């Protein structure tokens, strides 16, 4: 289960109101995209949900339990970082297994989970390689594998494809939405790319200056943008 609700979540850095107050409802199993221009607070909002940053005020409910004072580990969400966050000296197997080893899981359990994730991500033949000997797309899949083995309530992606070249990015989009269809786990995906948002999302959250401008299905946003900002950003004809 991965239902997430934000109630009047605020974040200030010093005296700057980066997130003045966000209310948001994410249903279990949804693929939600946070989209907005650079600096609008997408990463901050994701980090607040993950628990990597403390809220200034507000509630973050995961499956109806307020988690604002809980550690990232307790929240049960997995953040997928860009592929460069892999450990270069470790094999693919050990990169995927790392979090489980740290958590002290038995070897046989780790082995089953790593091989299962590798199977889903087409990495079975690459488990003994190091990240330097992989393509960009394969590295990104290893980063996703690290998240899968933890069986999270939700996956949180922060611009995971921005390091990849354009053609690879299109493939990886399909892989991530395919993974969502297979796992049916809640995913929150942050991007500044409107095309990514429109093609991947069940539900888009458009942000500007830390505020939610509109929430809706891609076609609804396109057909009925709430204001000029959304219309301009989504590329709607209005
Ligand atoms: P986005 O991911 O949409 O590009 P961010 O969430 O990274 O935006 O940043 C939103 C705003 O918050 C920016 O103005 C940024 O400079 C500011 N900000 C982010 N993190 C910090 C921090 N740790 N300290 C001070 N300001 C920050
Ligand atoms: Mg960001």
TrEMBL record:
Any GO CC annotation of this UniProt entry: maltose transport complex
GO molecular function, one term: ATP hydrolysis activity
The keyword Chaperone is assigned to this record: no
Family classification: Belongs to the ABC transporter superfamily.
Organism: Thalassospira mesophila
Protein name per its UniProtKB record: Glycerol-3-phosphate ABC transporter ATPase
Start and end residues of each ABC transporter domain: 4-234
Complete-protein stretch covered: 1 to 238 of 334
Keyword Lyase: no
Keywords annotated in UniProt: ATP-binding, Nucleotide-binding, Transport
């Amino acid at each position: 289960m991965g239902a997430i609700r934000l109630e009047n979540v605020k974040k200030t850095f010093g005296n700057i109101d980066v997130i003045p107050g966000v209310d948001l409802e994410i249903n279990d199993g949804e693929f939600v995209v946070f989209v907005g221009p650079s600096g609008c607070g997408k990463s901050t909002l994701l980090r607040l949900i993950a628990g990597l940053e403390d809220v200034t005020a507000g509630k973050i409910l995961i499956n109806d339990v307020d988690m604002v004072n809980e550690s990232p580990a307790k929240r049960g969400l997995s953040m997928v970082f860009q592929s460069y966050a892999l450990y270069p000296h470790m094999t693919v197997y050990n990169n995927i297994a790392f979090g489980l080893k740290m958590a002290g899981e038995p070897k046989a359990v780790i082995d089953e989970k790593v091989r299962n994730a590798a199977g889903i991500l087409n990495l079975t033949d690459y488990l003994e390689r190091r990240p330097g000997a992989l393509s960009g797309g394969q590295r990104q899949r290893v980063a996703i594998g690290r998240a899968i083995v933890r069986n999270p309530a939700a996956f949180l992606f922060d611009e995971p494809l921005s390091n990849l070249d354009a053609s690879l990015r299109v493939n990886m989009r399909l892989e991530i939405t395919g993974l969502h269809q297979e796992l049916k786990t809640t995913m929150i995906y942050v991007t500044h790319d409107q095309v990514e948002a429109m093609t991947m999302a069940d539900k888009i959250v458009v942000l500007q200056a830390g505020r939610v401008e509109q929430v809706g299905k891609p076609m609804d946003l396109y057909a009925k943008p709430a204001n000029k900002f959304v219309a301009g950003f989504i590329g709607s004809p209005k």
